[in-house]
Specification:
- This protein has 170 residues and is mostly helical.
- It has a domain at 6-93: Serine Threonine Protein Phosphatase 5, Tetratricopeptide repeat.
- The chain has seven helices and no strands.
- The chain has helices at 6-22, 26-39, 45-60, 64-74, 80-93, 128-133, 151-169.
- α1 (6-22) runs antiparallel to α2 (26-39) and α1 packs parallel to α3.
Length: 170
């Protein structure tokens, strides 16, 4: 029987972890990616990718602080693409939350494959099983201020009419 190296096993666990993440099995993805992390050389591309996906999985289950901690550790990784991914994720994970608009709900499509789209009803309440299935955090929008006086618009209209009157008078 052929023996498998730690790096090969880490690669298999990584691929299974990514597959589980993409299927919405975030807890299973975390378990597999943690095992892969223990076996991989973390300074390699594979090690960095394992940690990036692990951070994604932690964020998906609401453990954003753990995800942020992993990304901060990867900012000085030896592989440029891993550093870049970590900085990008860190920007998203640490971005300030926007305030919620009352009564505004946006539907986000759930894609089973790139060629399919099926509209799903929007649920108003969150259950614990919903939190496990959503790969993204909810982002609330701020209502724009529509009560402000727009004096510039009236000024621009007046100037335009004055210039039009001068041009017609010539």
């Amino acid at each position: 029987m052929e023996e498998i190296s730690a790096e090969q096993l880490a690669s298999q666990l990584y691929q299974e972890g990514v597959s589980n993440f993409e299927s919405g099995n975030y807890q299973q993805a975390i378990a597999l990616l943690d095992r892969a992390r223990a076996l991989a050389v973390l300074e390699t591309t594979l090690g960095g990718e394992i940690l990036i996906w692990l951070a994604n999985a932690y964020d998906a289950v609401g453990k954003t602080e753990e995800a942020i901690s992993i990304c901060r550790g990867l900012k000085k990784h030896s592989v440029n693409s891993v550093r870049k991914s970590a900085r990008y994720m860190l920007g998203i994970l640490t971005a300030p939350q926007l305030s919620k608009l009352e009564g505004v709900v946006s539907e986000v499509p759930i894609l089973q494959s790139p060629d399919t789209y099926q509209s799903k009803p929007v649920a108003r309440t969150k259950s614990s099983s919903d939190a496990e299935k959503k790969p993204f955090r909810e982002v609330f929008l701020e209502k724009p201020n529509t009560n402000s006086n727009n004096n510039f618009l009236w000024f621009a209209i007046a100037i335009s009419l004055l210039l039009l009157a001068i041009w017609v008078a010539k």
